[in-house]
Amino acid sequence: MRYPILSSLLLATQAYANLSPRPQHLILDSDSSDPLIKLHKELVEHQSISANEHNVAKYLIAYLRRQNFTVETQDVGPLKSSTDPPRENILAYVGKSRKTRVLVSSHIDTVPPFWPYERRGDEIWGRGSVDAKGSVATQIIAVEELMAEGKIEEGDVALLFVVGEEVGGDGMKKANDLGLTWESAIFGEPTELKLASGHKGIASVNLKAKGQAGHSGYPELGKSANAMLIPALNALLNVELPSSEKYGNTTLNIGRVDGGVAANVIAEDAIAKIAIRIAAGGPDAVRKIVTETVKMVDEDIEVISNGGYGPVYIDSDVPGFESMTVNYGTDIPNLKGDHKRYLYGPGTILVAHSDHEHLKVADLEAAVKGYKALIEHALR
Ligand SMILES: *[C@@H]1O[C@H](CO)[C@@H](O)[C@H](O)[C@H]1NC(C)=O
Ligand SMILES: *[C@@H]1O[C@H](CO)[C@@H](O)[C@H](O)[C@H]1NC(C)=O
Ligand SMILES: [Zn+2]
After folding, report:
1. What is the pLDDT of residues 156-166, one digit of tens each?
2. Active site residue 165
3. In the predicted model, is pLDDT for residue 24 greater than 50?
4. What is residue 221's predicted lDDT score, i.e. its pLDDT?
5. How far does Cα 122 stand from its chain's mean position?
6. Which pLDDT value is given to residue 33?
7. Cα(109) to centroid of ligand 3, in Å?
8. What is the pLDDT of residues 51-69, one digit of tens each?
9. What residue ranges line ligand 2, CB within 6 angstroms?
10. In whole angstroms, how far apart are CA 42 and each of 129, 183, 236, 379?
11. Which residues pair with 259 in a beta bridge?
12. Domains delineated in the chain
């Protein structure tokens, strides 16, 4: 699950990573012999905040090779600075056939800050425990079990684990260069063990105001960029945006506002960063409404748009699963092709990205069964 504006938080990664852990609960890890719990634990224990996925990738590559998968890596390149560690997507399959009918995929990066793995009774806490290492671990175990049961063979299923989902999807976009197509792709994100039938679209908009600096005692000598932005933002809070029965309301989040340099200086520059979750229509229509609303308040505010997409349809025609719509973005629109697409995984988005991210052991176990059923459905 991605928030579009998190890239600015990446700089804080190192500081966050050094936070001291929460008090440990004294519960012995009696499940270290369970391959699912062990894999999930080791994935969560490898900090992999976007841009820093290399350690968990190395762990996962070694794990998958030990399980006799053929493993390819795909270099994605640094997110920011070329001195950062390498970043790679991981493609794993049975035998020699990299071309498979079904793709099973999730992401190995997480949002900051890092929270250590912690077992609390029948719950597992920690950054990524839900989003999306719960999906990664259960997808792998599902494929292993289907192999062991003789239900899949070479050419049936490939696993793809990508970097950068939380920061714009550079990993999945790169996966389009693998030269592969599939009949079905099963994406792993927290859906509370339901099949998502669609997710909202997204548009990002920045407002930029340019004023004139001056002494705060003589406001008539300057022009405050902050004072320009405030009424425009207020107008946006009250603007009506498209809605639909399936996805509900389009919502608008003013996620970041920066302006001025000091209390006694008229602000020369101000910027607001806005994410819009689109429930109907495309990003262009929503941006047009936003632009017109802002310009009606102040012609001089610049409106800068960055990409985006409308609501994303997802297949959910599998017997035995409940379905739901979700408000978050995924890598689904980043993978080109006319494959059927499914979205499923353990845990709830309502705790993802939070300081209390956690799920139940039983959710992991249920997700293994769910992924097995989805893979078998897709191969039928
Ligand atoms: C991997 O293959 C080797 C050689 O065929 C075999 O001995 C080993 O048991 C396999 N490992 C797993 C986890 O299937
Ligand atoms: C959508 O917005 C309307 C008007 O603000 C509100 O009454 C309604 O409850 C909202 N619908 C949802 C699904 O949030
Ligand atoms: Zn996610």
Report:
1. 999 999 999 99
2. yes
3. no
4. 94
5. 26
6. 82
7. 8
8. 999 999 999 999 999 999 9
9. 248-249
10. 10, 31, 44, 30
11. 270
12. 25-199+312-379 (3.40.630.10), 201-309 (3.30.70.360)
